[in-house]
Amino acid sequence: MANSADVLNHLLGHPPSSSHPIAYNYLVPNIKGLQNVLKTADQVKPPIKGSDHSQPADDPKSPLTPPPSPKQQNEAEPAPITSTQDPIEMPSDTPGVNDPIRPNQPAAASTNQMEISLFTAATEAFSKANTNCSIAESLERCKEIVALAKSRSVRVRGYVSVALGCPYEGPDVAPSRVAQITTSLLEMGVDEVSVADTTGMGTAPRTRDLLKALSATGIANQDLALHLHDTYGQALVNVVVGLEHGIRTFDSSVGGLGGCPYSKGATGNVATEDLVYCLHSLGATTGINVEKMAEIGGWISGELGRPNDSRTGKAVLARLRG
Q1: Is the pTM for the entire model greater than 0.70?
Q2: How many H helices and E strands in the chain?
Q3: Which one of 133, 142, 166, 260 is the catalytic residue?
Q4: What does the pLDDT average to over 219-225?
């Protein structure tokens, strides 16, 4: 199996053709991990073709995250399901920043983008298990990673794990703690924070309470994403809660791939096929073809020799096969 540097080198040097931008996201556990990614990116010379879609990061027409939903007048009148100019449009890609392949270079042809992700956690026990340090120590590590990434015009995505339940400390994670950690990440320069239900313990009432706590802290919806594992079959329920609150970015995995080695029994993220079908049923526009996505889910599940965990994907494939 190729090591991560070989994979990175190949992807950056030979990006697959696509009619839409591709964001290559690399998880960096520490500053050395980011240095290695940047070193590899500096060594490749990918063929970059002209494009009319590239815009500099400071162009107001090129937001890093969807524009905010209309402000709520009161708690009884939640924001409608809206995003950008179209009231039923959902974000489906992220604009590039400078050169999308080689950070810190002028904007060029391709709109593919390289970005990084970093993790912290909402409980001390999970932080120790997952990153071998305290929450405070993990935030200090994040600061130097963000500083280097920003100096190279690399977009940074932060994650707050176990925000709705911890395998070691239980389901009652304080929303105020999640809000405090999220605020710390945004203040240090993280572009977007994905609040993660790593265990899948989240319920509709607790998801709503968490989102209210984040809003009360002054965190804008456009700076947030929801990352919902489907362990207890509640992921789509919590997606709808997020939509009603004004969240417009949701993590998902094709075929429901994923899990967590530090959360026994945790399944993968909500399946992309299921999420897209749900959004379309609510009248949202995603730009995603469910049938094509189902085919990808069936293919990758077969390649990995694992069951396809998308109910929508399996139903669509059965229909397509007659």
Answers
A1: yes
A2: 10, 6
A3: 260
A4: 97
